[in-house]
Amino acid sequence: xxxxxxxxxxxxxxxxxxxxxxxxxxxxxxxxxxxxxxxxxxxxxxxxxxxxxxxxxxxxxxxxxxxxxxxxxxxxxxxxxxxxxxxxxxxxxxxxxxxxxxxxxxxxxxxxxxxxxxxxxxxxxxxxxxxxxxxxxxxxxxxxxxxxxxxxxxxxxxxxxxxxxxxxxxxxxxxxxxxxxxxxxxxxxxxxxxxxxxxxxxxxxxxxxxxxxxxxxxxxxxxxxxxxxxxxxxxxxxxxxxxxxxxxxxxxxxxxxxxxxxxxxxxxxxxxxx
Length: 274
Ligand SMILES: [Zn+2]
Ligand SMILES: [Zn+2]
Hints:
The protein is α/β, with parallel strands linked by helices. The protein has helices spanning 32-41, 59-62, 65-68, 80-87, 97-105, 160-165, 180-185, 191-198, 206-215, 236-248; strands spanning 2-7, 14-19, 22-26, 51-53, 76-79, 109-112, 118-120, 123-129, 138-144, 147-152, 171-175, 223-227, 259-262, 272-273. Residues 13, 58, 60-61, 153-154, 228 line the site of one zinc ion (ZN).
């Protein structure tokens, strides 16, 4: 199995996971044009995708989906509640967009549940609910030939369930959205937005990731990729350093060779082979 984060941040998210002949796009939050361009950059033709999984309806995860579907022939794996929210008023889009979305998705979806395993080609997906202010969002682990990776973005805190699901992963893509101090000091965000981001159903901070790396993480992954970094309330070097220091602070018996890597909002990261 191999994967790359095509782009990640508040402006849009997309991850590509491949195994054998199977190529799965996770989220379509960049523009369709940009997703197709970045797929090509990593050597993947959009027409060859086996499926698109949508984790939740927020525009930075699903905003490019409608237009992207014109270039694809594969189905969209989406939960019933997320589909309704995506095509409905809740998406906060005006004019014809809800109708266009409904038309495009017609006959193109495979309904999944945020708590039930499903398979796309040669990859098994094991979704689980994570705390965020969307209708039905999930993180997941994906397995192929005994290797497991996890992708989870957009969640406000690490629950017992999440901690358990992250055990035994060879790679983990995890949100490291903001530095709490940088967010609090950020002058462009209104107070309500800061409260939303900081809440237990908001976004995970560098500090949350560090605490998990010290106390919850099993130490087994070769790679941990930090994702969904805020461009205003985080700094890639601060996020990476915070995670690396946390790994070093683990007890002597729990030292690990895990590499911390960054994903970027403007370009795909290099492929990670598992
Ligand atoms: Zn997001
Ligand atoms: Zn979200």
